[in-house]
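=== RUN LOG ===
request id: a7f3
mode: sequence -> structure
chains: 1
length: 319
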Amino acid sequence: MPAAGPTAVLSSGKTMPLLGLGTWQSTSEQVINAVKTAIDAGYRHIDTAWVYGNEKDVGQAIKEKIAEGKIKREDVFVTTKLFYTFHRPERVREAMMQSIGRLGLDYVDLYLIHNPQCFKYGTSPAEVFKPSADLERLFDDVNHVDTWKAMESLVDEGLAKSIGVSNFNSQQLERLLQNCRIKPAVNQVELHPYLAQQDLVDFCKKNNILLTAFSALGAPARPKAFASGEEEPVLMEDPSVVAIAKKYGKSAAQILLRYHLDRGVSVIPKSVTPSRIQANFDIMDFSLSKEDLASLGELDRTLRYVGANLFVTHKYYSY
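=== RESULT ===
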């Protein structure tokens, strides 16, 4: 796979670019333009999800770039995710077919269980993310080991080249590892210096599961429903981050992204601004010293920017 950046070989044997473009919370036009800009800049990994509502836009942008001769289908690594309402094994393939239909693809490179928690089939995303005193009535009780077995069948069919999870902790991963035929290739979680999760990083490395970091810049644009309600420190304004950025002649965002690559972690920064998309990719010409990596590691305060207050009464609550 031609890629202008570092890659990793997954446990599935497939190659995944470590730096990708995130597409959460963007309008249709923004996503199309962002994906096209990213491909032109050298990105070969695009991350989306059923719940983002933009799979069709991601697929359109990829199709246009293939038509231009910029890329071939096999050059771009596409990730999407199983939404919370499709966890019952008999619903997993249905969700996959919806996703690849919207993307306009024959397969995806990586398919993730988006969350350990599941909701009753037919529950809308608006209902799931609406603060509600009776949210529990929407919960479903499905063992994610059973969901995983249905995910494995998607690999057998060739609909997904690799499969993995998102927002899983080490205990939940261990349950899958003890009961799987195909190992989870990836675990996508919130990860940044304020939430270093070193134990999870070590666990995943030990078990050959690649971690992918979302909200790597501190999730400055996340919706109110995902915020804690308390005043939170701004990661990109942290004095240590700013000082290290000045030392390398880079931006705070570039330092935070390089931090993950130097930890052996994949990262998928989201942006719709062409200059930032390019800047986020321009991190291949330097590495952080061991001392600077350690300094960033000392910033850990177990601060979770995204979703820490969601679904806390669910049987399979992650955190």
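=== NOTES ===
Residues 94 and 174 are 27 Å apart (CA to CA).
The chain has a mean pLDDT of 92.
=== END ===
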